[in-house]
Specification:
- This protein has helices spanning 75-84, 103-116, 139-144, 162-171, 186-189, 198-203, 210-227, 239-250, 261-265, 287-299, 314-317, 334-343, 350-357, 359-364, and strands at residues 3-13, 18-27, 30-35, 44-47, 52-55, 57-62, 87-92, 120-121, 151-153, 178-181, 194-195, 207-208, 230-233, 255-259, 304-305, 382-392, 411-421, 424-428, 431-432.
- By secondary structure, the protein is an alpha/beta fold.
- The chain has 2 domains: 3-53 and 378-432, Urease, subunit C, domain 1, CATH 2.30.40.10; 56-364, TIM Barrel (Alpha-Beta Barrel).
- Strands 1, 2, 3, 4, 5, 16, 17, 18 and 19 form a 9-stranded mixed sheet that branches. The protein has a 5-stranded parallel sheet with strand order 9-10-13-14-15.
- The two termini are 17 Å apart.
- The structure holds (4S)-2,6-dioxohexahydropyrimidine-4-carboxylic acid.
């Protein structure tokens, strides 16, 4: 295996609290040495002057559509999009066809991820059989399988029945797994098309009230408290939900939470275009919610930025608003949206932003070798990016098989230059190596 010297970059490693210029020597897939002025004899020297070197990004929430909708995305195209976004680990949700609710499917997803080899793929198992919400899936069998599932979710759908969520939180304590919930009271969102507020009233589109998310967040937090189980909240999008998580954390509930870039970068005003690329679940919220999500990420109430990368085939998504499925792409733009929308305006400093994309999400799960620290002996899963590079998002040039990015045409700052998975280039000079 190659010996590489990443030379002269700004090493931002939240797990070791390192922020400053340092070389990183990589040998045989691992970090061999970190420090100033390392000797590069026998190593390929990679000039990182002016660039940030950090742990590879970790995405707790993606949809890779395989098995079942390979016309929208595959584990291969999704892995490539992830690597180009600076990710070295992604966690695909189980709402595939068939649903990833048994050892066979999660093992297939993990094995395909390994075969592609561009990022580590840690599948999330379904909580209920077929995500139907009626009975628990075999969580233990998925945890013991070769895929070693440590997180379960019915994402795309909420766990409607409190009793089942309670059982899942209790049962998974035995193997310290996490239940990740998509908080949505379906009885309040039946037929909903967008966030309920002034804009939905103007447009005459059925609304998804913030309360539909907040009620379920409150319920979930109470059940986490009751059971002592580990709860993770997916795509937190309202100010009220952020406040509920903040209060629960203050009283010691075992909860972690994520926010998606579109929820801190866009508002429900985007729906005025009637362009279904802006339709997502939970929906784009109001300015005050966006502000609250930003504050939640800043103070650590929200542990992680997760993309909810949701590719949809053109013929499904490019239809009238009401008929379009919810979801937007995120993997190739998340870092740049974070830098442009959170770091540039001063909500988060660069180190905190990197934390929410790396060590923060890694802490929410067991993802060996990811999230840092960048220290001798650790797997060399690293991202190198240019924080100043400006670029314009062009949906035609994405590696994802789908085209539904809400950021098409937007100028963003921050571009991934290299991504290393166990010391091998998955992305080199902005191009995927495979
Ligand atoms: O917008 C969304 N799309 N939200 C979800 O929860 C599921 C996702 C999908 O699978 O398309």
């Amino acid at each position: 295996m190659t010996r590489l010297l990443l030379q002269g970059g700004r090493l931002v490693d939240p797990a070791s609290r390192h922020d400053g210029v340092a070389d990183v020597l990589v040998d045989d897939g691992r970090v061999a040495e970190v420090g100033p002025g390392l000797d590069g004899t026998g190593a390929e020297v990679v000039d990182c002057g002016g660039l940030v070197v950090c742990p590879g990004l970790v995405d707790l929430h993606v949809h890779l559509r395989e098995p079942g909708r390979e016309d929208a995305e595959t584990i291969e195209t999704g892995s490539r999009a992830a690597a180009l976004g600076g990710y070295t680990a992604v966690c695909p949700m189980p709402n595939t066809d068939p649903v990833a609710d048994n050892a066979g499917v999660v093992e297939m997803v993990a094995a395909r991820g390994r075969e592609v080899g561009l990022v580590d793929v840690f599948p999330v198992g379904a909580v209920t059989l077929g995500q139907r919400g009626a009975e628990l899936a075999e969580l233990g069998a998925m945890a013991r399988s070769a895929a070693r599932v440590d997180c379960f979710s019915d994402d795309g759908l909420p766990i409607r029945e409190a009793r089942l969520l309670r059982l899942a939180l209790e049962y998974t304590r035995a193997f310290d797994a996490v239940i990740a919930d998509h908080a949505q009271d379906a009885s309040l969102t039946d037929g909903a098309q967008m966030h309920e507020g002034e804009v939905s009233a103007m447009l005459g589109l059925a609304g998804w009230p913030a309360a539909a998310e907040e009620m379920v967040v409150a319920r979930d937090l109470l059940l986490a408290e009751l059971t002592g189980g580990r709860l993770h909240l997916c795509h937190v999008s309202t100010g009220g939900a952020v406040e509920l998580v903040r209060a629960a954390k203050a009283r010691g509930v075992r909860v972690t939470a994520e926010a998606a870039p579109h929820h801190f970068a866009l508002t429900d005003e985007a729906a005025r275009s009637y362009d279904p690329v802006f339709k997502v679940n939970p929906p784009l919220r109001e300015k005050a919610d966006v502000e609250a999500v930003r504050q939640g990420l800043a103070d650590g109430t929200l542990d992680a930025i997760a993309t909810d990368h949701a590719p949809h085939a053109r013929e499904d998504k490019e239809v009238e608003w009401a008929a379009a499925p919810p979801g937007m792409l995120g993997l190739e733009t998340a870092l740049a949206v974070t830098l442009t929308e959170l770091v540039e305006p001063g909500y988060l400093d660069l180190v905190t932003a990197v934390e929410r994309l790396t060590a923060g999400p890694a802490r929410c799960r067991r993802l060996p070798g990811h999230g840092g620290p960048v220290a001798p002996g650790a797997a060399a899963n690293l991202a190198v990016f240019d924080p100043a590079a400006a670029w314009t998002v062009d949906r035609a040039r994405l590696a994802s098989r789908a085209r539904n990015t809400p950021f098409h045409g937007r100028e963003l700052r921050g571009r991934v230059v290299h991504t290393l998975l166990r010391g091998a280039f998955a992305v080199r000079d902005g191009r995927a190596t495979r």
